[in-house]
Automatic annotation (TrEMBL):
One of its GO terms (molecular function) is pyridoxal phosphate binding. GO terms for biological process: threonine biosynthetic process. SUPFAM superfamilies: Tryptophan synthase beta subunit-like PLP-dependent enzymes. InterPro entries: Ser/Thr_deHydtase_PyrdxlP-BS, Thr_synth_N, Thr_synth_N_sf, Thr_synthase-like, Threonine_Synthase, TrpB-like_PALP, TrpB-like_PALP_sf. It holds the Pfam family Thr_synth_N. Keywords: Amino-acid biosynthesis, Lyase, Pyridoxal phosphate, Threonine biosynthesis. Pathway: Amino-acid biosynthesis; L-threonine biosynthesis; L-threonine from L-aspartate: step 5/5. This is Threonine synthase. It comes from the Bacteria.
């Protein structure tokens, strides 16, 4: 299986090259050239399969011969070494909790899978080491740093905006040490991202073999399919797998697009709901047919503050760019901060469930969906509420318990380098090139 570029002006590549390139040379996103549905038997017996087996069956066609079976199985089982529980909220309504990984962020799975794939490729080539360079507005940095920690042959450099990430997020980025480096930028996230882009185009840094680990990378995007397969398996064991509707809190739409890819492989899902905060480019598109990104609006669900979601083009591609076809299995709604806070209160009062602002938006999406009544609704809870401690405690008038792993982290000492601009980044990368 090869990957094509959605801009159509770059050569087809295999999985390995798609992972190293991140983006195709024509700036297009990579997309699988062919998608082969899994056999019916797979879905009929899914409740008897291990997560590793499910992951292997789902991912093998996308990896092709880039990684042999044994190594791929090992990567998958290592990636999935924590739980993805389905928590009952109301009758036929579940929260799919994706925050039980090492950084309590749902991005852990994508970051861990990508790290292990790169480590495999590096172990086979024995050429010089590569550097993963990434800009973060908060959650991505921690998941990437943790995912790549101790990965042989890989140096990690993370840029984050000084004073603009939460204390927990900053500690997650800055306390790991070893092969991870945190660069604190006097500026905002856009400034960080600008510098990263510049470094990728700088011939003076070509020998550093820079790799991006952002969410458009196929190795971060595709393993997210497994959330949907594992949730389906779980629902099937409970006898609730008929007519499943997923509601996904969306920012860059990678997670949602992964779910829809799982459906292309044959996963029986009745409908997908993409729930957004006030950054409503896609909800507006589903009504007007016009894709018009606005200015990004800051919200309390800040990991979803994206006005031009990179992965939406992949969703359109899955539906042959036909909006009527898309609408049959996809709806998208936007919710304000006020509605989000009300949903958090409602969930807590009615069901005793503590949701973070992102999960609450997923819940709202499910409530708004007006499908036939007899369905099982699953909303994705993408962050542990402790990561949004102030917001959650204020709206629920409750104190949250700090999980042991977070307390341990808060007691650690931050290690970072402050950089003022691009020249500082470049000299850091050059000075750090002995590895
Ligand atoms: C990244 C993120 C999202 C959005 O996921 P996308 O795949 O970008 O749509 C939602 N919630 C949390 C907590 C996140 O970190």
């Amino acid at each position: 299986m090869k990957y094509i570029s959605l801009n159509d002006k770059a050569p087809k590549v295999g999985f390995r090259e798609a992972v190293f390139n991140g983006l195709a040379p024509d700036r297009g996103l990579y997309f699988p050239e062919t998608i082969m549905p899994l056999p019916n038997l797979f879905f009929e017996t899914i409740q008897d399969l291990t997560p590793e087996e499910i992951g292997y069956q789902a991912l093998k066609q996308f990896v092709g011969d880039a990684i042999p079976e044994m190594a791929l199985r090992e990567i998958i089982s290592d990636t999935l070494s924590f739980d993805f529980p389905l928590v009952a909220i109301e009758k036929r309504t579940y929260a799919l909790e994706l925050f039980h990984g090492p950084t309590l962020a749902f991005k852990d799975v994508g970051a861990r899978f990508m790290a292990r794939c790169l480590a495999y490729f590096n172990s086979k080539t024995k050429i010089s080491n590569s550097t993963v360079l990434v800009a973060t507005s908060g959650d991505t940095g921690g998941a990437v740093a943790n995912g790549f920690l101790d990965t042989p042959g890989i140096e990690v450099v993370i840029l984050y905006p000084s004073g603009k990430v939460s204390e927990i997020q900053e500690k997650q980025l800055t306390t790991l040490g070893k092969n991870t480096n945190a660069l604190e930028v006097k500026g905002d996230f856009d400034a960080c991202q600008e510098m990263v882009k510049k470094a990728f185009l700088d011939p003076g840094l070509a020998h550093r073999k820079l790799t991006s680990a952002n969410s458009i990378n196929v190795a971060r995007w595709l393993p997210q399919m497994l959330y949907f397969f594992l949730a389906y398996k779980n629902l099937k064991s409970k006898g609730e797998a008929s007519n499943v509707v997923f509601s996904i809190p969306c920012g860059n739409f990678g997670n949602c697009c992964a779910g829809m890819m799982a459906a292309q492989l044959g996963l029986p899902v009745s409908h997908f709901i993409a729930a957004t905060n006030s950054n409503d480019t896609v909800p507006r598109f589903t009504v007007s047919g016009k894709y018009e990104p606005g200015v990004t609006i800051p919200t309390i669900s800040n990991a979803m503050d994206v006005s031009n979601p990179s992965n939406f083009i992949r969703i359109l591609k899955l539906y042959e760019n036909k909006i009527q076809l898309l609408q049959q299995s996809f709806s998208s709604y936007s919710f304000s901060d006020t509605e989000t806070l009300q949903a958090m209160q409602e969930l807590y009062k009615k069901s005793g469930y503590i949701a973070d602002p992102h999960g609450a938006i997923g819940y709202l999406g499910l409530k708004k969906y007006n499908g036939d009544n007899d369905y099982t609704g699953v909303f994705l809870e993408t962050a542990h509420p402790i990561k949004f401690k102030e917001t959650v405690e204020a709206i629920l008038s409750e104190k949250l318990e700090v999980p042991a792993q977070i307390q341990e982290l808060l007691d650690k000492k931050k290690q970072s380098h402050t950089i003022a601009g691009y020249e500082d980044l470049k000299s850091f990368l050059l000075g750090n090139s002995n590895g």
